[in-house]
Records
---
Amino acid sequence: MTAPGTREELLRLLRREDGDYLSGEALSRALEVSRSAVWKQIRLLREHGYVIEAIPSRGYRLAETPDSLIPAEIQADLGTHLIGRELVCLQETDSTNARAHELGEAGAVEGMVVIADQQSAGKGRLGRRWTSPGGVNLYASVLLRPQLPPRCAPQLTFVSAVAVARAVAAISGLPAVVKWPNDVLLGGRKVAGLLNEMSAETERIHYVILGIGVNLNMSPEQFPDDLRYPATSVATETGAAVSRLAFTRILLRQLDELYQLYLDQGIEPILKLWQALFPLQGGRVSVDLQGTLLCGRVEGLDGDGALLLRLDDGRLERILAGDVRPVAEA
Ligand code: BTN
């Protein structure tokens, strides 16, 4: 029998060669297993979608990694301090936020991430559904345990919004922007949504869950007909499929960096980064407060992230939740 971890170690060795061949003998020596055990592991990796070339006189070469969201691939040389140090990757679940709640209650470490290939009951904001077909997008929930009072929890929405917008821009080469409070847009259409939830007592946060849904390779036909805001995917905007694995790694690194910045320096630098990605700053918008519609000009954000809206009658409104849309200037 081969020791547990042999496959991960084999992958690590093949990756280290950076596209060069590694002989079966060298692998069997490094892994301290027989040549036939090496061969068996290579066969299993191929069954999981890895393309491993073999040339009798030279050995093995890792030519392609599958686009599957599995811990070993996501974590390989990830280099983050907190985010993703523990990963739970599921084939299908109702909602990654629901799984993260369970794990949070059971004492999971800060930085743990739950990822699902598919969600049967993905949760959106305000009780809506998040369409979550398999094999195409990213559905992730990040568990954080900041030692802060519960009133600070909404600030973390801005941390995740900037991280997602940066990751979408990096993978697509296109400018991604944010829409208050927690959407990310590409080409003016919604490409990602954030649903942050928390468990707390009066003075203390137990944990916060950053729920992140990013439409990566979803095709236009896969979107529901009754969308409240026009939606898109990265592949639709760029015309090419993107690697979910590469995107996930970029996103976890961005979250790690920005969460650390938030812990070190507070919300101010995060709000500055967010505002630089917010094209509606100063623009005319309508805000739907679940039934009541307000119209005015965006003055900016309050220190806690509330939207400051200058109404047409001159009053300044502080808005904590609602759906914002741009309105054509008269
Ligand atoms: C929105 O309404 O815009 C927020 C959508 C958030 C969806 C993500 S997908 C991963 C996580 N799990 C869920 O059930 N929802 C969030």
Note: Residues 95-97, 119, 122-125, 128, 130, 139-141, 183, 193-195, 211-213 surround biotin (CB under 6 Å).
---
Amino acid sequence: MQPGVLPVQNPFLDPLRFEGRVPGVTVVIFGANGDLTKRKLLPALYRLALERRLPQEFAVIGTSRTLMSDEQFREKMRSAVVEFLENSSFDADIWDGFARGILYQPGDLRDPASYTALAGRLGEIEQSRRTGGNVLFYLSTQPSQYELAAAGIGNAGLARGNGWRRLLIEKPFGHDAASARELTAKLHEHFQESDIYRIDHYLGKETVQNILALRFGNGIFEPLWNRRYVNHVQVTAAESIGVEGRGAYYQEAGALRDMIQNHLLQVMATIAMEPSSTYDAQRVRDERAKLLRSIRVMNPEEVGENAVAGQYGPARVGGADIPGFRQEPGVEPEAQVDTYAAATFFIENWRWSGVPFFIRTGKRLPKRVTEIAIEFNSAPHLLFDGHGTVAAPNLLILRIQPEEGISLKFLSKQPGAGMTLRPVSMDFNYGSSFGERTPTAYETLLLDAVLGDATLYTRQDMVEASWRVVEPILEDWANRKFDFPNYPAGSWGPEKADAMLARRGHTWRQP
Ligand code: BG6
């Protein structure tokens, strides 16, 4: 066999199919004319259909204010799926079958008549496609409209029915702990907490889920997974893109709110949480929540030392002129918004006391890469020092994207005379090991919501705990006048972020 070619009988290459029974359901997408629907939701649903994971008794109703017929909506979604389908080819036959269950219902979120019309449509579908009356309401609208939509659904009697009714919402869940609590109170007027699915798509990423498999499915890592052996942890979520036409939203959000409050704190919780006794929604989420509550909330005086804001300025990158954030459409010329955020967090528990977790994220950084680097303490005494040995700490790198995998870096003897040590890497690569296209986060999460599995969804207490962690930073930044822009597009962020680590004797890894 040629080197590098996997044997056909490799069990990893067996198709990994979900064996359970997926119930019939109608997914109602509010905000169906928006970006998320075409970029993520419809491609994910189509992909599930392609893999035959959806039952026959399945339908999608798109709704938004735009007037469109079912046929026009289907056509629009077909083009979107062709354009945004990742790593698979479009199959026209599968599409035709899937598209028969796609419908469109124009409606205004403020108009009760729109919900009555929707109710009529749902009733017809329940009969014609035998969905059992199960409905997943997906709010892909402006966050300011969540309460309105939930109330409209509830007041029209749609939050109850023959089957189950669930509400799925996208972040941001409020803009601080108090508003997150208020939003929940409003949603609870119509839906129980157990029927509310708050999506954090990072939790649906295969490699984020694999952190738990790595930690709790193996015996060798967990004994080292604590303050005695771990020196520090770095979490990097770098993006090379800018704000991509979302200047107006981003101007209100900023990187700390957009990425750290939700995605990266969830990732940190997954790395640091205690094992749950079983893998079920309640227990796994209890452990994540407990961890989030254990993150030390900074005093106002600590923010300057432990958090760094950045904003990209214009630069010439790879022969192209890249505008600065303030030159993006919809952004004010003096905007004080962070397009880069970094912070040092500590966890106040026995396992992690004193171990810094450095988190950073930014737009217009040199490349798209998300990874977790766990640096272990060095050997207490290096026998081989003084023989050209390159000192390098043991690192466990969990790569979330784009090349998904895990690497362990350690020192090895360089061949030849003497004892010279060099860092080497032991690599596991998701793609080549499993030979399967990994499902996108939206595929996983949509299917889970239909199956009623909330393990990978965030919960109200987790959302509030994360807001509490970032609130002192947000407050400090809101009252500060930054000297922005402070990093050129295409660079690794502001110098202050390097200084933040240097103060503790560390440097950022170059992923
Ligand atoms: C979204 C943010 O939640 O996550 C975006 O609003 C960001 O600003 C995106 O680009 C990153 O997601 P991914 O899956 O591309 O890493």
Note: The CA atoms of residues 13 and 488 lie 44 Å apart.
